[in-house]
Specification:
Layout lengths: L2 E7 L5 H15 L6 E7 L11 H9 L21 E4 L2 H10 L3 H4 L2 E3 L21 H30 L1
Parallel strand pairs: 1-2, 1-3, 3-4
Helix pairs in contact: 1-5, 2-5
Length: about 160
């Protein structure tokens, strides 16, 4: 059984593709890439068909990640095939939960930083789009910090379903 995770931000060119790439790498390192599918999308379709923001690509490549990405908009029909929908900030969380066709689907939506015990009360990953390269570095740090906890939660969920 394949476990499916989709990361969602605003336009699917900065935060969510970064989270997708980092988490896909963590899944591969754990030897789960044949059992876990990782994807991303945006709450809006402004950048549909575009690649990731060049600053996102640069930061990822500077840290040893390879990227290939085409932006797209999240569709409510996807809930039925997804196990987990990871929002990058509370605005996305609310928008996605409103899009969810059922209460069960709404429960699939979680904030990425909720998987980082060091995050404290500030669970939003700030949008780096309107800033400089330091915002993209900060975004990557937050994504990487939450990815280990997310991987542990996915693994636990998969084991629970197999039992």
């Amino acid at each position: 059984m394949t476990y499916r995770v989709c990361f969602v931000c605003t336009g699917n060119i900065c935060r969510s593709p970064m989270a997708e790439v980092v988490f896909r790498a963590r899944v591969a390192e754990a030897g789960l890439d044949d059992r876990v599918e990782v994807d991303s999308a945006g709450t809006g379709g402004w950048h549909e068909g575009d690649g990731a923001d060049p600053r996102t690509v640069a930061v990822l490549e500077d840290h040893g990640y390879s990227t290939s990405h085409t932006a797209r908009q999240f569709q409510p029909s996807w809930f039925s095939r997804l196990d987990l929908v990871i929002a990058l900030d509370s605005g996305h969380l609310g928008a996605l939960r409103r899009l969810a066709p059922t209460e069960q689907d709404a429960r699939k939506v979680r904030l990425l930083r909720s998987y980082d015990p060091a995050a404290g009360d500030d669970l939003d990953v700030p949008d780096p789009y309107y800033g400089g390269p330091e915002g993209f570095e900060e975004c990557l740090e937050m994504v990487e910090a939450a990815s280990s906890g997310l991987l542990a939660a996915v693994r636990e969920d998969m084991e629970g379903r197999a039992a």
